[in-house]
Amino acid sequence: MEAILMTKFSVWTCMPSRTYISKEKTPPGHKVGKERLTLLLGINASGDFKLKPLLVYLAENPRACKGIFKPQIPVIWKANKKAWVTVAIFEEWFNDHFMPTVKKYLEEKGLGFKVLLVLDNAPDHPTNLGEIYPKVTVIYLPPNTTLLIQSMDQGVTASIKPYCTRRTFRHVLRVTENSSDELDVK
Fold this sequence. Notes:
Layout: E1 2-12, H1 20-23, E2 36-44, E3 54-57, E4 76-79, H2 87-109, E5 115-119, H3 129-132, E6 136-140, H4 146-149, H5 151-177
Parallel strand pairs: 1-5, 3-4, 5-6
Antiparallel strand pairs: 1-2, 2-3
């Protein structure tokens, strides 16, 4: 049986709270940014198979992605006004992405289709997945224990959030250093 571990976490604006920039007051008429996104990540227990991440953002076509062909980006892009994974989004992802990808992986490895899926106890995870797909055994972790016993949450979340912050700062520095205009961080 192939075990697939899943984790989901939300990422808010990655700017640290202890910098001069974050202490500045916003100009009158402007709100503080409340950008958020949710990532759903999955990997098998041995670590040699990683699912394409599901990204849920506030907008289907944000201005920053203008001109970008979404099937070419390395995530499955979905939109929700609160940037949350809903039951509908999860079921669509499960049927259209999870099942075909896992089937292909198991066929390539010469293994029979028998999967153990470990999920946290979130309201967006349908409770009848094991009934619909009898060869997929779904285990839901007990409430309020995800951070303690789910291996994906122990390392992945702690690694990705600092990575996003470093990448954001590198991008800001690159843009401001290479700009012919007098751009600044503000």
